[in-house]
Amino acid sequence: MQKLLIKGNQELSGNILISGSKNATLPILAASILAEKVFLSNVPLVKDIFTMLELLKFIGLKIKVKKKEKKIELKNNNKRINTLAPYKLVKTMRAGVLVLGPLLTKYKKAKVSLPGGCAIGTRPVDLHLFALKKLGAKIKIKDGYIIAQAKNGLIGCKIDFPSISVGATENALLAAFGAKGDTILSNCAIEPEILDLISFLKNLGCKIKILGRKIFISGIVSAEKKIYHNIIFDRIEAGTYLIAGALIGKKIVIKNLDIKTFKKEIEVLRKMGVKINKKKNFLTILRSKKLKNTSVTTKPYPGFPTDLQAQLMVLMTQANGLSSIKENIFENRFMHVPELKRMGAKIEIKNKTAYISGPTKLTGAEVMATDLRASVSLVLAGLIADKRTIINRIYHLDRGYEFLENKLKKCKAIIKRI
Predict the structure, then answer these.
(1) Which of 9, 253, 269, 332 places its Cα 20 to 30 Å from the Cα of 85?
(2) Please, what are the domains in the chain?
(3) Which pTM does this prediction carry?
(4) SS3 for 93-124, per residue?
């Protein structure tokens, strides 16, 4: 099993080019089932993307990956499509459940394994099924599979989500694409990644309008046979390197991002005393030696993202005084805390809130990654720790961070995969 070795306390400097968004690419790949030909660019070459591509190949799509250009071509002209998404291809990645909506709306049936992914909470698919049932699907769960049918097709309707869910909003959008009549989704997630999916569906010929947390879908107006789409930047990757620069960067320049959709992250870090200079599409971060304590609550966009909670916690270990993070999205997303404490962090958890005392000197240790974002928080901790840090189970890291070691090495980090 592969590990990462990090020698800490090496000042970072250089440029980091942000990759395309994993969380935007996955639902757009699922949406490609609805099209005939799709050409995607700025695609991140990470494990979750290749897992989704394997699933789409199994379903029957023809796929060509151009790794050097970070482009993917998908064709769906197979009349003998497979409406099954098996356990072996869905067990490691929650986004696999997103093929449910497009298969159901286009082929009127689907059998999809209940999904896996990171062990950060139960994250049930109840809201996905709630939306699809409203659209007229008949659904049952049997032997670990979601079995869905809509013999006469899906029918547009009003869906008011009882709570905000990114995945359920995406699946409802994908299902409503081919439904008869209009669909109104209320209390939706409005993350930039969802807006990118909507942009893709509009290019595909769907009429969609957004008003606050309401989305109006009129179904297919005129289906396009061939579409091109450029994936948005990965705001979680950008936030991760922003925090790395604040921790131990002499001068880090982060390029290829849209600052307009990145306001909350910048606001929180500036409040802590992080020095950030903004330009049109890049940020310059200088190491911040006098960090202030703060309190943050994770919330749906435009709030502070849960996917940056673990990374921010590492920064809080270097701030003066007592900081806190309340986790409002997932019930089990503090699994990195015991590993950070092994490195010397002073963190206590009460109910849904982590209290972090600082500044604290971290010392390298052998630690274990438990999920995607926890794994990168241990990388950040290793960068500022004395001595050597060994991170085990880094396959979690490979699910969502493209060329992480190479990007850090270019900024003079001493990091090695063994």
Answers:
(1) 332
(2) 4-18+233-417 (3.65.10.10), 22-230 (3.65.10.10)
(3) 0.95
(4) CHHHHHHHHHHHHHHCEEEEECCCCCCCCCCC
Q: What residues are annotated to the active site? A: 118
| 340: β partners | none
pLDDT in tens, the chain (418 residues): 899 999 999 999 999 999 999 999 999 999 999 999 999 999 999 999 999 999 999 999 999 999 999 999 999 987 788 999 999 988 878 888 999 999 999 999 999 998 754 443 444 688 999 999 999 999 999 988 999 999 999 999 999 999 999 999 999 999 999 999 999 999 999 999 999 999 999 999 999 999 999 999 997 766 677 899 999 999 999 999 999 999 999 999 999 999 999 999 999 999 999 999 998 889 999 888 899 999 999 999 999 999 999 999 999 999 999 999 999 887 667 889 999 999 999 999 998 999 999 999 999 999 998 887 889 999 999 999 999 999 999 988 998 999 999 999 999 999 999 9
Contacts of residue 313, Cβ cutoff 8 Å, sequence gap at least 6: 325, 336, 337, 340, 347, 354, 356, 377
Burial profile 121-137: b = 16 or more Cβ within 10 angstroms, e = fewer: bebebebbbbbbebbbb
The three-point CA angle 247-253-257 to 5° equals: 110
210: number of Cβ within 10 Å: 14
Q: If we measure between CA atoms, which residue out of 70, 79, 78 comes closest to residue 50?
A: 70
Please give the structure tokens belonging to residue 109. 């049936």
Cis? peptide before 44, omega within 30° of 0: no
End-to-end CA distance of the chain: 9
**85: CB partners within 8 A, 6+ apart:** 55, 58, 59, 96, 97, 99, 100, 103, 110, 111, 112, 113
